[in-house]
Write a structure and sequence with these properties.
Distance between the termini: 29 Å
Number of domains: 2
Largest sheet: none
Radius of gyration: 17 Å
Number of helices: 4
Helix content: 55-70%
Shape: elongated
Oligomer: single chain
């Protein structure tokens, strides 16, 4: 939560109080997790670490899709 607050403050140039208010007006993360097939978490410590995690995530996703297509399945 703190990382999210800091990122919103930096991105939108707003106060901590306003960032927290905006977060509280949104659906909780669990709401969205229940509706998705995959999740890429961007809580890495550095941009380079996130890039590596993202590349691995997308490679696994591509591999899964290829495997499902080979077996005549659709979806993830």
């Amino acid at each position: 939560m703190e990382l999210r607050v800091r990122r919103i403050m930096a991105r939108d140039n707003i106060t901590e109080q306003y960032a927290r208010l905006r977060i509280s007006a949104q659906q909780p993360d669990e709401y969205y997790r229940g509706k998705c097939d995959c999740e890429l978490n961007n809580a890495a410590d550095t941009a380079a670490a996130f890039e590596m995690e993202a590349r691995e995530f997308f490679q696994r996703l591509i591999d899964t899709i290829k495997e499902e297509k080979a077996h005549g399945k659709q979806g993830i």
